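Structure ticket #2291
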Amino acid sequence: MSMIWERNRWRYQTIEETPGDVSVRIDNDGNRFTLERLEVSAAKETIGVWIAMDGNQRTQLNKRKQKAETWADLVWCGRLAPTEAWLSLNHGVMMSLRYPLMACSFTERECEDIMKPLLNSGLPAIGVSRCFPRVVVHGPRSHQGFRIPHLW
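Resolution: structure written out below.
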């Protein structure tokens, strides 16, 4: 990463503005490996989290939405018993969506956008109306809730 002062503010330089290669030594014999260079706004997957050097989360958000939509399509078209749908929702897709959250700072609205397809197809699959009040859907069992976690 390299920055330049331009028009009274800092901006990241592009790869064209900073030519060169970055390499690392991979063994004791001096052999080197040239690393792939990306623009600072381009994200790369690292241990399951899509990270961009400038901190933007566009790719991470899009990947979470895609995962939720894919799961929702499969459940909508599939023939799962309510118990199987419940387990798939709570212990499958929700766990994979929650995993990268510690490295993210999604807004509540972005979390709602991710959750929408899950609830629209997941609730009918477990035998509940998709229009059920969200307070009850996400509420604890001690208050007669369904205990479906919310990403926010």
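Closing remark: The mean pLDDT is 90.
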